[in-house]
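Final report, Chapter 2: Outcomes

The project's central promise was a pipeline that accepts a single protein chain and returns its three-dimensional structure in a standardized token representation, suitable for archiving and comparison. That pipeline is now operational. To close this chapter, we reproduce one record exactly as it appears in the project archive, with the input sequence first and the structure output second.
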Amino acid sequence: MSTTEINPRIVRDLDRLGQLERKVSGRRRQLHRQIDELYLAAPLDDAQMAELDELEETERAVSHERRKLHETIDELRAEIGLPRWRDEHELDNAA
């Protein structure tokens, strides 16, 4: 498919999903920072342990949402002949 034939809906969806992915990734980074801070505060009291458990559960849910977003983005990118999202971003971030 040439670029002149790309479905505008797919382009809009990719843009919207890209924005959502950045938001979800930011939330995940924030959770990782909070989790790391608690681990560095060890030994933890009962309240801190409960907070850590809750943060880790939330992080797992956010990570799952992020993986699903990446799958959806990859499916749309494949429809218009682009490489997977992660492949492109790994190239962008190569040293």
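Archive annotation: The mean pLDDT is 90.
This record, like all others produced under the grant, will remain available to the consortium after the project formally closes.
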